[in-house]
Fold:
Amino acid sequence: MLRGPVADNDALARYYDLDLDGDDPGDIDMYLALADAPDGTALELMAGSGRIAVPLAAAGHEVVAVDNDAAMLGRAAALWRSTSDRAPTRGRAAKGSLDLVEADATTLRLRKRFGLVFVALNSLLLLDGRAAQLELMKVVARHLKSSGRAVFDVWLPTPDDLVLYDGRLVLDWVRDDEANGEHVAKTTSARYQPAARRAEVTSFFDAWREGQAARRTLRTDRITFMSSDELVALAEAAGLHVDQLSGDYEMGDFAADSNRVVMVCHRFTG
Structure:
């Protein structure tokens, strides 16, 4: 027996972490290295549950993490509280800090600029259309110090990837949510609109305990894809100058067949 589906932000925040626990992108070391280069201040936009912001703060950086989802920020706060080792590392002389801000990242105005501003792991694609993506890049430029660096990480799907975006149901994984004592299965259905280069992705999370009916929680995302050239053009339109395009989190060379692009920029001041 299956109950639902329902929209439950607290549950979705848990399942977001469960999703990444089983498939670590491997990008945290990159952000730690990039945060060391400027002055130790960092702003993460669309920060989610603190997967990157908390390690940066624990490493001694002054971090502001912005998201419009209170449940995600609640998990980030809990993760920060549970971080037992906040001793300075990597040569920093003071303990780090984490400030969590619930806000729309596309309209953000803080009275501070940062040495590192970043939008991680495809979050830019979750904004609805080029206009919203451009507004986010303008926010990045507005909050970036003249000596600072901005970073955007974007997935570049291949035609073979998008073939699966035809509405079929795909079982992504079945995992144990040990903190909640449940088994969880994630199933996804996606539809791609080639003319608009957009996709609607619906994720179903079915959670159950032994002998009990499963509870279904629903999440829908609208994804606006872009090429590396479009990413560069948006950055330049927002007042950013592109320093480097990489194809992976080791900052390797970007190639025509790269399935993601990591773009590093500075604020144009000329």
Notes: Residues 86-93 have pLDDT under 50 and may be disordered.
